[in-house]
Each structure stands twice: as structure tokens, then as C-alpha cells.
Amino acid sequence: MRYIDRDEIARRLTYDRCIPIVREAMIAFSTGETRQLLRSILPLSEGRLFGVMPGALGAHKAFGAKILSVFKDNAAKGKQSHQGVVLLFEPDGGEPVCLLHAGEITAIRTAAASAVATDALARKDAKRLTILGTGEQAITHARAISKVRKLETLVFWGRSAEHAQRLANKMHDELGVETVVAPTTRVAVVDADIVCTVTSAVESIMEGKWLRPGAHINIVGSSYAGPVEVDNDTVTRARFFVDSREGVIAQGAEFLNAKKAGLIADNHIVGEIGEVLAGKIEGRRAADEITAYKSLGHIVQDLASAWALYAQND
Ligand code: NDP
Predict the structure, then answer these.
(1) Stated pTM of the model
(2) How far is the CA of 195 from the centre of ligand 1 (A)?
(3) The domain 2-106+300-311: what is its CATH number?
């Protein structure tokens, strides 16, 4: 069986390639072409999870599963937070044909999905991007979002100012844009056109009242019911979109918190990003509207990326 390692994925799964792949996958997801089960998450111990995500790109298309660990403290050891494999089956004889490094696919496809949502929902003139968090997803989000908007300033906030400064220097060198380190999440958020929350925080680190009219926020860091990154105001103030309606109603922690507080019902979810991309639901309706995209992450994003790397020779 073929193995596609981390280096090969980093080299071949560019954002220019992955963003359209994820866009198509999310349309297929929302039109019911793909199949997937809700992810299973087995808690191992505090901050250590084991996840299994099975799915298929269509009735007669490639299928497979992502099997991975998510260890919260790995970054301090210089390791990826998500580690494991994507196992790909081909659709004709149902044979397993390829294993791929799951950490690298996850790092890239998650940011590509946020870029797709940002492209669909953020104002066209958005130029100031704020990233809360300084880990792997912070890097990939800076790279991916800069593909869909002409950014002038990148603002970073991290609970470690040193990590934030290192990241700001790195992205300045790489992307050639102005980078700023914000001392607090409030300072980071108040002037932002686009905000991405990509931390492993378990309690809210920002308040929705800080978002300025017209802002767009991608809420990415919590991918199961439990930890939250943003407060109820962030959810209730926004025209609220999700990657999967079923997924967020079952596992979207920030949405569930606001619902539990009696502030919203399931119909607060305007729609899935795939429905917006397919032209079935209106995305942003006004320049001063606040839009939000709640990302849980989906196996079809991994499988579509994996199949492209396996099936295409380049
Ligand atoms: P990393 O471990 O590389 O980075 C985590 C970041 O979160 C670090 O900057 C860390 O700060 C920060 N952080 C941790 N705890 C807190 C806290 N209490 N308050 C503020 N910041 C905190 O992880 P990744 O970048 O790979 O992933 C980031 C998050 O995104 C994770 O929670 C992960 O599970 C999630 N994720 C979501 C996906 C999706 O599809 N929606 C897919 C992949 C990841 P410090 O440097 O100080 O430790």
C-alpha cells in the first residue's frame, strides 16, 4: 500500500490546490452526495483524545477514514497536535490503496475550509486579519486566508507574547505583509475585518461585543461538545453558518452553550457553507452584518484532499 508522508503532502497539497478541493467537497456534503458518520471521540485522559472519522465521497467514489490522536500539549514538545493516518479505499473493488499522514492533511484542509468560508462570507474589501492562537493552525490560517483576500495587516494574539512575536516575524517574512502582535484579545479583535480563533482554549477568550460591524469570524479551535473559544454574544450577534448542521447541533460547543442559555434555537443556524456555495442560501446580506462560520472539520475534506494526492500524478 502506498504511503504519502508529511513532506509530500506539504509540497503537493498547496492552498491553491486544496481550497477548490475543499470548496467542491463542502458543496457535495451539503447536497447529500457524500456520506459520513458523526465522528467518534474516545477521551483517553485530560487533553488527550482518540478520534475515528469514517466517510465516503459518494456512493461510487473513494471512501475511508481518518484515525488520529489529538494531544493538547504536543506543541510544547515540538509535535503536531493531530497525529494519525487517513486510510483511503478505492471505489471499484473496495481495496485499501493508500495511507496518508493525517496531521499534515488536517493542518492544511482545515485552513482551506476557513478560506472557503471567508471567501463566501467576508466583505470583499476585508484587509485586516486577526488570528487568536499561535500554533500550527495559526500558521496555516494565515497562509490560506491570504489566498482569498488582499490582506494588508495580520494581527496575532497568543497567551504567550513570545510565541505571538515569533509567529508575527515568520509570517511577515513569508507573506510580506505588515504583522502586529496584540497585547489582549480585545485589542486584537476590535479593528479586525476577519477573525480566526484557532486555540485549544476551553473557556471563552473573546467577547462578541468586540466585533465591529461587517466583521467575519471563523470559529475553529473547538471541534467537539465541551471546550469553547468565544462567548454567547459572538454566536447570537452573527449571521451564523456552519460546515455541518447536524454536526454543530450535536457537537458545536459554542452553539450549544448559547442554546443551553436559552438565547437561540436550532434555527439560528442560517445554513451550511456548502449551501451558500451552491447558491441555495444567501451568505452576507449587508456590509455591516457580522458573519460567523463554525468549523468542526469533516472527513470528506480529508478524503477529497487525499484522493487528489493519490489519484493525480504531479
Ligand atoms: P497547537 O497545539 O499547535 O496550538 C494550540 C494553540 O492554542 C497554541 O497557540 C496555544 O498556546 C493555544 N492555547 C492553548 N490553550 C489556550 C488557552 N487556554 N487560551 C488561549 N490559548 C490557548 O494546535 P493546532 O494549531 O493544531 O490546533 C488549534 C486548535 O484547533 C486545537 O484545539 C485543535 O483541536 C483545533 N482543530 C480544529 C480543527 C477543525 O477542523 N475545526 C482541525 C484541526 C485542529 P501556547 O502556545 O501558549 O501553548
Answers:
(1) 0.97
(2) 15
(3) 3.30.1780.10
